[in-house]
Amino acid sequence: MPRFDKLDAAGRSALMATIRKKNSKPEVVVRKLVHAMGYRFRLHRNDLPGTPDLVLPRHRKVIFVHGCFWHRHKCAAGRKTPGKNLSYWTPKLERNRQRDQKNVAALKSVGWTALTIWECELRQPRLVESAVKRFLQV
Ligand SMILES: [Zn+2]
After folding, report:
1. pTM of the full predicted structure?
2. What is the mean pLDDT of each run of 10 residues along the chain (138 residues)?
3. Please, which residues have CB less than 5 A from ligand 1, an ion?
């Protein structure tokens, strides 16, 4: 196996570990926030497209908490290019973004509405709180 394949494999597993990592800090912040607002939810329902981080069955609504870099947010962190192996990472990250869009569309097609909260938005918890409020009250 050529050497770069090994590096790619290592990079791939590092990426997947990050994506799969549950209870990441931003997610915990959102969970606490939504809980404090009096809403009850379930976590990581893997029978729903994209395994949403928070699921509110009564509202038929889900909340994703996304890291800006891995999910290609339009903010500075999300536009940052990976330092090495550009030809590997760029399409990889782009696929993450496209998969996110597909998941939201798939949820919508079965009657669920999704809200995405970005890691960078958590710097202003009050804004996140009002976004959640608007989202759940509709
Ligand atoms: Zn961001």
Report:
1. 0.79
2. 50 55 77 92 90 94 95 93 84 94 97 96 93 90
3. 68, 73, 75, 78, 118, 120
